[in-house]
Specification:
The protein is built from eight helices and seven strands, in the order βαβαβαβαβαβαααβ. By secondary structure, it is of the alpha/beta class. The protein has one domain: NAD(P)-binding Rossmann-like Domain (Rossmann fold, 3-Layer(aba) Sandwich). A seven-stranded parallel β-sheet has the order 3-2-1-4-5-6-7, sandwiched between helices. Strand 1, helix 1 and strand 2 form a beta-alpha-beta unit. The chain is globular, with a radius of gyration of 17 Å. The structure holds 1,4-dihydronicotinamide adenine dinucleotide (NAI). 1,4-dihydronicotinamide adenine dinucleotide binds next to helix 1, helix 4 and helix 6. The site of 1,4-dihydronicotinamide adenine dinucleotide has 29 residues, from helix 1, helix 4 and helix 6. Its EC number is 1.1.1.47. Keywords: NAD, Oxidoreductase. This is Glucose 1-dehydrogenase. Belongs to the short-chain dehydrogenases/reductases (SDR) family.
Length: 253
């Protein structure tokens, strides 16, 4: 198993990509610290892992709460150890031009998508550097690379995640800690459903998105989880500061 004897803390783990990553990591032998702001669904993921013979614990965590993040990571490090951090929690926003986007909406997206990732790294890095090993995977987006129209706040936040992760990799590499970004294309999760719900005809909009991809379909959360797994594991031991695009070939068309 690829993550035997390792402990992984995953944010936004109650749904979509975070849920699929939690289940995948558990299959590979990791002890999974399932965290999410959603304390109804989160514990169900931990239960599902435990019932399948794995080892998981749920903790409620809002990634925008820096003090709580520091405190939780310190407790997890002491009680379970910590080898892998996946900063996956993220949010979208209704499609709108820059000049139509409320300041409060802009700030909300920055708080979750940028400060949430910062807070996770701020909390984990002292422990990982001290132990001289660890792997951080931050979840960016195709919007880390492309500027998406009417998704400027999201694009700003995900671009920041990619470059922040490079800085973390440069800082922490000498202490044996790696940091990488996964940049998914449109992936079939509740977040995508929310995005499509704003379209006049969500099913037609979904079909149009599929047509943009050479593979003619959207990503599945499990396909993103597999790439997060690769970057988190020792198989990627010489990979750091990288943005791994997982997009069904979108960039080629
Ligand atoms: P999702 O909506 O299915 O899951 C997101 C999870 O994050 C939810 O469980 C939610 O409760 C949690 N969350 C939201 N705010 C939080 C907070 N403040 N603190 C802690 N947890 C919080 O979304 P999905 O699609 O699985 O997204 C996961 C990541 O992947 C996000 O960072 C998203 O931006 C990114 N992404 C998603 C794509 C897609 O097409 N679905 C494409 C590219 C990137």
């Amino acid at each position: 198993m690829r993550l035997e004897d390792e402990t992984a803390l995953i944010t936004g783990a109650a749904s979509g990509i975070g849920k699929a990553t939690s289940l995948r990591f558990a299959e590979e032998g990791a002890e999974v610290i399932v965290t999410d702001i959603n304390s109804d669904e989160g514990p169900k993921i931990a239960d599902e892992i435990d019932e399948a013979g794995g080892d998981a614990t749920f903790y409620e965590l809002d990634v925008t709460d820096a003090d709580r993040f520091d405190e939780l990571v310190a407790d997890v490090y002491d009680e379970h150890g910590l080898d892998i951090l996946v900063n996956n929690a993220g949010t979208g926003h209704p499609s709108a031009y820059v000049e139509e986007t409320d300041t409060s909406m802009r700030d909300f997206v920055m708080d979750v998508n940028i400060k949430g990732v910062w807070n996770g790294c701020h909390a984990a890095l002292p422990h990982l550097k001290e132990q001289g090993s660890g792997s951080i995977v931050n979840v960016g987006s195709l919007a880390s690379i492309f500027g998406l129209p009417k998704q400027a706040a999201y694009s700003l936040s995900k671009g920041a995640v990619l470059n922040f992760t490079r800085a973390v990799a440069a800082e922490a590499g000498p202490k044996g800690v790696r940091a990488n970004t996964v940049c998914p294309g449109f992936t079939d999760t509740p977040l995508l459903d929310q995005f499509l719900a704003a379209a006049d005809d969500p099913e037609e909009a979904r079909q149009k998105l599929r047509e943009d991809y050479p593979l003619k379909r959207l990503g599945e959360p499990e396909e993103i989880a597999n790439c997060i797994l690769f970057l988190a594991s020792d198989e990627a031991s010489w990979v750091t500061g990288h943005g791994l695009v997982v997009d069904g070939g979108y960039r080629t068309s």
